[in-house]
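Ligand: D-malate. Inputs:
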Amino acid sequence: MLLYYVDHGPGRVVVLLHGFPLDGSMWEYQRETLGTMYRVIIPDLRGHGGSDTPAGVYSVDTMADDVVQTLNSLRLKEPVVVGGLSMGGYVALSLVARYPERVRALLLMNTRAGADTPQTAQVREELAQQVERLNSAAPVVEAMLPKLVAPFTRTNNATVVARLGEQMAKTTPRGIAGTLRGMAIRPDRTAFLPKINVPTLVIAGADDALIPIDESRAMANAIPGAQLVEVPEAGHLAPLEQPAFTNVHILRFLSGLP
Ligand code: MLT
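Predicted complex:
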């Protein structure tokens, strides 16, 4: 499927993949700052934002296929930097595992390589059914919004929190259900991490309530040569909660790429 995308700036390509159930607008601070030097391509993954929302289960591999098709439609066959946050990171890992020739470097932000536990998969299925029954994103907003940002962001940046709630509420029940079911069946890519052979920057929120910092440290340790940046006073959405700090590290990483 061809995805809706934003294409901004000159130079070498950096693709940024958003988290669930958000859309590409979560990267507004990266689009502006990175976009002064790089061509930033920000797709909305299927079921989110301006992209189509077909019926069915959206596996992370299907989402990765959509990204490749969209890059193909732009005639971008050379390897690109792929960054993904949380669900976007699952898709980025699928890309580097299945299309290694298309990935120049990786930015893995607030994400993990492991699969869902059976309990997590069960909770996702229950949430998907609830969203479908009520025909509303509200159950997901209620379940996720309180866990997405750090206490610092909740206290000091009410605007960001309100905007996130609005963005989540706009995601359709069908898109939410398809994505929840797809994430629940995603493969465990932990054993793949030592095989990653592109430069990788792992970015973690020091106060991420969904992905404990130790898990990000372990992921960075498992990827040969990976760098790790721990973002203070950031939760699950580090690039959005602490854009200035995060962007400095992303730009430093990008400028050091061969
Ligand atoms: C996300 O932010 O994309 C989600 O937390 C991913 C997930 O639910 O596993």
